[in-house]
Amino acid sequence: xxxxxxxxxxxxxxxxxxxxxxxxxxxxxxxxxxxxxxxxxxxxxxxxxxxxxxxxxxxxxxxxxxxxxxxxxxxxxxxxxxxxxxxxxxxxxxxxxxxxxxxxxxxxxxxxxxxxxxxxxxxxxxxxxxxxxxxxxx
Length: 138
Fold this sequence. Notes:
The chain is mainly beta.
């Protein structure tokens, strides 16, 4: 299983047991509640999200709209192809939602060698739009 939509408007009243769900994304009504109350019920690589849009994470280059991230997985420096857009800021988040890095300028190459191994979410603010990507650091 790669994803499961559990959003039903009433997650706080659900009893769940989430087994054998490595790298799965569970769509829920309240990520904060799920992270606090269901954390031990899922594999450590599985995640909760309030706005999961489908698809799975893989180790190939990842492109969403006008944003490409490569190589993926990354060991040291990661490149971002903005396709002629100018980034105002770039933020990197852990899968738990914690901001682990922020760059306040347009940048094509980012050194992520200081980050622990794992999956990360990338958010690029272009002013009038926001690009998203995911990458694996190992």
